[in-house]
Amino acid sequence: MLDLDKLTPEQYRARYEALQAQARARAAAATPVANFADIATKDIIQQDTIPPGWYVCLRLHKGTALRVTNDSGTPGAAMFMWNADETSERYNAGDTAKLQWTTNFTTGRVLFSDMGRVLASVNADTGAGHDTIIGPNSPAQTAGRNGRDNLRSAAAKFGLSRRDVAPAISLFSPVAVDDAGCMRWRGNPPAGAAVELRAEMNLLVALSNTPAALSPVQEATGPVSYIAWRAPAVQADDLCRNFTEEAARGFINTDGFFAA
Amino acid sequence: MTIISDTIVPARAPYSALLKAGRIMRIIDLKSQQAVDALFYNAQDTTERYSAQDTLAAQAANGGRYDLTTGSVLLSNEGRAMLKIIADTCGFHDTCAGACSCESNTVRFGHETRFMHSCRENFIAELGKYGMTKRDLVSNVNFFMNVPIRPNGELTVDDGVSEPGGYVELQAEMDVLVFISNCPQVNNPCNGFTPTPIQITIRDA
Fold it and tell me: Left, alpha or beta for A143 (phi > 0: left; psi -120 to 50: alpha)?
């Protein structure tokens, strides 16, 4: 067996480049088509509309799907989540990007915790773009209600504090790096943009109708609505469990948490 | 110029220090291509700590890049200046990719890497000396680490470009607890696949 602490630099590089080539092939392949299932009324657990500037605290059981719809095309919605069974485990922005070799999160991708486990899958997405590099806005961008304060308030209502809030994700936030290495806002998301996340662990979720930090418009311009619903049981050929080798390994870790 | 401390941090090892307001920390990449993971906390109240997203949002508002170099101001989760980068021979330092961990290594490099040393092991051990825990770990700065984000959205770890003896200097804007993990990672090119020692000096301005 290979002693991984004692390979030569050339051997380590070959391992890395093989993984990188695999990730690049995956990224170059067609993005899976958004597939929003019809939701039967009996499967709806909770639904509501979040007015501009407000937030909600949600407790999602493993297997629950959360469909978030940007009814008005408002420039961003801040989100953060914790493992409800162990809140020191939480969304990790750096790992979510690094482990999937991308800053583009859309259908087929997953959100990682700091423990190498999949917290949630991106089940379906209209492709508006979601940003976890710059993320939600804060009092530095607006004197009004903002993502940082709302996520912190939501944390407080779960019994948590600012210690428990780390870099977050801003849904409906189309950004890209330009050739000079600057993150740029690519224009507001369309009204009706939607994304559906499936809880892969029991989650505490903070969802805030507040703009992305990079948005030129710093007041939310309209409502964001959500539906939490009982998603169908996950099948072995599930898109998100199989879309990348990294996610498949993340699900091994997630499954291990629940096997105990 | 009074030298307060001068420390060689062995390959793969952690380090921590109090950097008082006004003092300057120089981190020297002695052998080149060595990633140096760093976290920063307000020494008076450690629940105020470095915020990568606040830092990058402020930088982007001024037309700046997604990485850090001379002139970058490291902001806290209260949007306050913690440190300024006042000198840099490298040109860019990552703050998007976070620190490596045993758990994330399993996802990225396979479960066979789960018992290899990692930065978050260093951080957890060092934070513990100050009464902090994993709960206090947030996205960090990776000095000398080359993490390009490309216009197509790809984020990778590429070969480092720092030269032997290259350094970065940080001046504290408040009393800051500094935590360093001299990165042990060999599964990507951030350390040239060979972790090496670094030197850290603290001096009066």
Answer: alpha
A-B contacts at Cβ under 8 angstroms: 177
Complex ipTM value:
0.97
Q: Is residue A107 part of a domain?
A: yes
- What is the residue range of A70's domain? 46-259
**Quick check: is A12 in a domain?**
no
- Cβ within 8 Å, pair B149-A24: no
User: Does residue B11 contact residue B196 with C-beta atoms inside 8 Å?
Assistant: yes
Is A27 a member of any domain?
Answer: no
Contacts of A166 in chain B (CB under 8 A): 137-139
Question: CA angle A253-A258-A260, nearest 5°?
Answer: 100
Task: Give the distance from residue B200's alpha carbon to the nearest chain A alpha carbon, in angstroms.
Answer: 26
Confidence (pLDDT) at A1 = 56
pLDDT, tens digit (0-9, with 9 covering 90-100), for A71-128 = 999 999 999 999 999 999 999 999 999 999 999 999 999 999 999 999 999 999 999 9
Residues 6+ apart with CB under 8 A from B21: B172, B173, B174, B175, B176
Asked whether residue A41 is domain-assigned, the answer is no
Residues 6 or more apart from A62 whose CB is under 8 A from it?
A199, A200, A201, A202, A203, A258
Which residue is closest to B51 within chain A, CA to CA? Answer: A167
Res A32: pLDDT: 82
| A40 interface with B at CB cutoff 8 Å | no
**d(CA A66, nearest CA chain B) in Å:** 25
Whether this prediction's pTM lies above 0.95 is answered by: yes
B114 vs B187: CA distance, rounded Å: 11
Q: How far apart are CA A97 and CA B111, in angstroms?
A: 19
Tokens (6 digits) for A21: 């080539």
- The DSSP symbol for A206 reads E
pLDDT tens per residue across span A21-43: 999 998 888 888 868 999 999 99
Segments forming the whole domain that contains residue B181: 3-203
Look at chain A and report how many structural domains it folds into: 1
Total domain count, chain B: 1
Instruction: Measure in Å the smallest separation between the Cα of A48 and chain B Cα atoms.
Output: 29
CB contacts under 8 A, A 60-79 vs B, are none
